[in-house]
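Team,

Forwarding the record for the chain on the shared tracking sheet. I've put the sequence and predicted structure together so nobody has to dig through attachments.
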Amino acid sequence: MGTIQYRSCTSSDIDQVLKFWETATHGGSTNTREAILIFLELHPDLFILAWDADLLVGTVIGAWDGWRASIARLAIHEEYRRRGIARELVARAERLLISKGTRRVYANVFNDSQVAFEFWRSVGFTPNTIVEPYAKDLSP
């Protein structure tokens, strides 16, 4: 395992990202080539990948709508966990979001993962006791 390289996702990475997500995280209605292409048109710098040579080992997506920021799809290859890659991905996303003007960021965390809760707390996030997130799937 070599040095981890971080860079923004490009359209040529999409197939590897989708394949990586099949094993590294939960499925989702937005796990499609089309959804990623749309996101890359809006925020190409906020979709960050971690690579060990040609192996994709981590992803994170930051989003900023001018009002609120969020972080989603933090996923790390099972064999690369607990090496600081997730912390680095989150730190990079936070720096980019701050540079765009955000003052608060929300993390989208699967509610069935105690390990995820512990990680997010370790990087300074706390449960939101004021706003309860609701979601609606708009896919056909």
